[in-house]
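Whether sequence alone determines local backbone shape is best considered at the level of individual chains. When preparing material for the folding task, we compiled for one chain both its residues and its backbone structure tokens. No coordinates are needed to read the tokens, only the vocabulary itself. For completeness, the protein is quoted in full, as a sequence line and a line of structure tokens:
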Amino acid sequence: RIVNGDGIVFNTTNFAPGTETVMHRTVSLDFVAVIEGEMELVLDSGETTRLKPGDSIIQRQTNHPWRNPSKDKPARMVSLITPATGAIIDGKPISEEGFSVYGMGRPHAE
């Protein structure tokens, strides 16, 4: 889990060139800013948003992976993550899915 209980999590995440997380969802409200390199947020619809240093995004319970599209430059982002009330889709609460926090990165296919 990214968030446990009522606490707020602040973290810095480093991505090696070509790294991508698995598709995942957390029951949280995420404030994310890229501070080095470029990152892409890919929604399960296929929509992709590229973020450059200084860009930020706020998301709540979206199903997504993060990826560093560069072949030779690392990327770094900071996140402030707070617990969120579970959203309801088709009458069912959505839940966390897709990864364990540690070891979630993998090279992405082009």
About this structure: Residues 9-87 form a domain with the Jelly Rolls fold (CATH 2.60.120.10).
